[in-house]
Amino acid sequence: MKIRTRFAPSPTGLLHIGNARAALFNYLFARHHGGEFVLRIEDTDRERSTQQAVDVIFEGLKWMGLDWNGEPTFQASRQDRHAEVVAQLMEKGMAYRCYCTAEELAAMREKARAEKRPPRYDGTWRDRDPADAPEGVPYAIRLKAPKEGETIIKDLVQGEEVRVANAEMDDLILLRSDGTPTYLLAVVVDDHDMDITHVMRGDDHLTNTFRQAMIYRAMGWNLPEFAHLPLIHGPDGAKLSKRHGAQSVVEFREEGILPEALCNYLLRLGWGHGDAEILDREEQIKLFDIDGIGRSPSRMDYVKLSHLNGIWMRRANDERLTALVMQRLAQRDDLNHDETVRARVLALMPGLKERAKTVVELADNAAFAGLRLPLTLTPKAEKHLGEEGKKVLAGLETRLAALEPFTPEGIDSTLRAFATEHELKLGAVAQPLRAAMTGTTTSPGIDLTLAALGREEVLARIRSALSA
Ligand code: GLU
Predict the structure, then answer these.
(1) In angstroms, rounded to a whole number, what is the distance separating the alpha carbons of residues 259 and 264?
(2) Quick check: 418 pLDDT over 90?
(3) Catalytic residue annotation
(4) What does the alpha-carbon distance between residue 364 and residue 345 come to, in Å, rounded to a whole number?
(5) Half-sphere exposure of 418 toward its Cβ, with a 13 Å CA cutoff?
(6) 358 in Cβ contact with 256 (< 8 Å)
(7) Measured in angstroms, how far is the CA atom of residue 177 from the centroid of ligand 1?
(8) Which whole number is the average pLDDT over 131-157?
(9) pLDDT higher than threshold 90 for residue 159
(10) Contacts of 257 (CB under 8 A, 6+ apart)
(11) Using an 8 Å Cβ cutoff, are 61 and 26 in contact?
């Protein structure tokens, strides 16, 4: 059997990390088993399903490196097929027309509430003679769900059967009175027609799964395997919400998280393999399987994510990180961001990426490369540019002007020799320089910093500091 999984998001305008994780798991499971991973856009809510909302999903998946097989399926385009299946269920006597009006249904719910019963459809039209049908009243079509016995689902994550008494369930609507299919019906028909073998989704869908199982059985179709993934909660165990922090893929990208770090984190959040922590895509595909998925909800740990992001940034290619930094610097009009600045950032990157945990931090720490003169100094930096500091700068100016070649090694020797001659600690030489170069007291190693700025700019920044 060829394994086929799917990701079936509704275009809501964002790609929530719970869904992103479901996509990742479906992708890895399919790839691990040499199967296929397909994409279905559940765009039946026509108002929300704008092109923009659909693009958010495409872009999010591409950013995460989750490529799908074939063309995506758009659920709304399959409404005729959904209606056709309902017609078959009618023929089989497994579905019936329900003429209840909205008022009648509301009264039914009210009555149930008053009697402290769960609000369910009471089966008014289930066994009624269709000849009783009122004329000109629109009708919905409901599934004739089994009333006795149990509906049982094998769940691959819980590792056991999950069951519900059929008496607890009512006759779900398949087609609404305006002729549109419900979500429950559409998902079943599509998963069946698309030959999906494994449905992996959040466990908030578990009750839907019971109802969907009834549709499969009514049609005499084989059920796919189900794996319900425990949800991702906030750090405090409550439902993940805005107040906890970023929740959608775009927000994490905005906060400077790399896709490989997000994927690695989301994978480890709900799945484990021994003590493997840092896994690249190839290792993920090799090791992923359903038996490693945890059974209880996980808690989002933003601190751990940024730690992991730091690790992935140190592994990332400098050109790529430089491009990401330049995109951010380009949004600041207090900076230059031309090719010269790009080259400086690239040269600084080995030092910059040692310290930063996100691309945002990386860009903040790289910004000095594009500063225009004179620099604005932080109060701490200002302290290093007093009389003593300026003396150091003036002494260094001529030496640096004459240094050949202007490399980190040459700069390092020059600064050390200067410190020894003047009986200064190296810090007493480096700090005024750093203040003059960056306006702050932090930067990558001073030798790397000067070399990246280049002689001309270093001298200009020294002169500017001396004349302030
Ligand atoms: N479209 C549903 C959602 O975005 C998921 C459907 C499914 O995975 O079965 O929640």
Answers:
(1) 8
(2) yes
(3) 242
(4) 11
(5) 23
(6) yes
(7) 23
(8) 94
(9) no
(10) 305, 306, 309, 358, 359
(11) no
Which band of pLDDT confidence, cut at 50, 70 and 90, is reported for residue 1? Answer: confident
What is d(CA 135, CA 97) in angstroms, rounded to the nearest whole number? 13
- Is the domain defined by 78-184 classed in CATH 3.30.420.10? no
What is the sign of the dihedral through the CA atoms of 376, 380, 385 and 387? Answer: positive
- In this structure, the residue with its CA closest to atom 7 of ligand 1 is 8
pLDDT category of residue 46 using cuts at 50, 70 and 90? confident
CATH class of domain segment(s) 379-467: mainly alpha
Question: Which residue from 365, 361, 373, 376 is spatially nearest to 336, judged by alpha carbons?
Answer: 373
- Looking at residue 316, the DSSP 8-state letter turns out to be S
Mean pLDDT for 265-285 is 95
The rounded mean pLDDT for the chain is 96
> Cα separations (Å) of 82 from 31, 45, 187, 354, 436?
30, 15, 9, 55, 70
pLDDT tens, residue by residue, 455-466: 999 999 999 999
Dihedral sign (CA 442, 445, 448, 454): positive
Residue 72 Cα to ligand 1 midpoint, Å, equals 15
Atom of ligand 1 nearest to the CA of 191: 9
Q: What is the pLDDT of residue 81?
A: 98
CA of 8 relative to ligand 1 center, distance in Å: 5
Distance between CA 386 and CA 334 in Å, rounded? 26
CA 119 to chain centre: 36
**pLDDT by residue (tens digit) across 83-124?**
999 999 999 999 999 999 999 999 999 998 999 988 889 899
Task: Write the CB contacts of 369 (distance below 8 Å, at least 6 apart in sequence).
Answer: 341, 344, 345, 348, 452, 453
Q: Would the CA dihedral through 185, 15, 309, 301 be positive or negative? A: negative
